Amino acid sequence: MTVSKERKAELTAEFGNTPQDTGNPKVQVAILTERIRELTEHMKSHQKDFHTRRGLLMLVGRRRRLLSYIKKNDILEYRELIAKLGIRDNIQ
User: Fold this and answer.
1) DSSP assignments along the chain, one per residue
2) pLDDT, tens digit, for every residue of 24-76?
3) What is the pLDDT of residue 1?
4) pTM greater than 0.85 (yes/no)
5) In total, how many domains does the chain have?
6) Which residues form the signal peptide (predicted)?
7) Structural domain includes residue 26
8) Is residue 91 part of a domain?
C-alpha cells in the first residue's frame, strides 16, 4: 500500500523543481494524494479495517495542512496544483 519507487520518482520529476526535490510541498502533496487514492480503494473492500482508516485520516490531515501552506504563500500555484491532481478546493 505504498507508492512504488518509480512512481515517486515520476511525481518528483513532474511536481518538483529538480528530479531530487522531494522536500517541495507540491511533491509531498502529490505523493500523499497517490497514497490516499490507494488507501481509499483498499477501504472500499475492507470497511472494517479501522487501523487503515486512521492512517488514511492522518494522511488527509497532513495533505490539508500542506495545501493550506501552499495556498497561503502562492494562490496561483495552489490552484494549478489542485487542478493537476484532481482534488477539490476545500481549504479555508
Assistant:
1) ----HHHHHHHHHHHSSSTT-TTSHHHHHHHHHHHHHHHHHHHHH-TT-HHHHHHHHHHHHHHHHHHHHHHHH-HHHHHHHHHHHT------
2) 999 999 999 999 999 999 999 999 999 999 999 999 999 999 999 999 999 99
3) 65
4) yes
5) 1
6) none
7) yes
8) no
Q: How far apart are CA 89 and CA 55, in angstroms?
A: 22
Q: 77 is in which domain, residue-wise? A: 5-85
- Asked whether the beta carbons of 2 and 35 are under 8 A apart, the reply is yes
Locus of grid cell 481509499: 40
Tracing cell 502562492 back to the chain, one arrives at 74
Of 16-20, 21-25, 57-61, 88-92, where does mean pLDDT reach its minimum? 88-92
Q: Check pLDDT > 70 for residue 23.
A: yes
CA 49 to CA 26: how far, in whole Å?
29
Residues ≥6 apart with Cβ < 8 Å to 87: 33
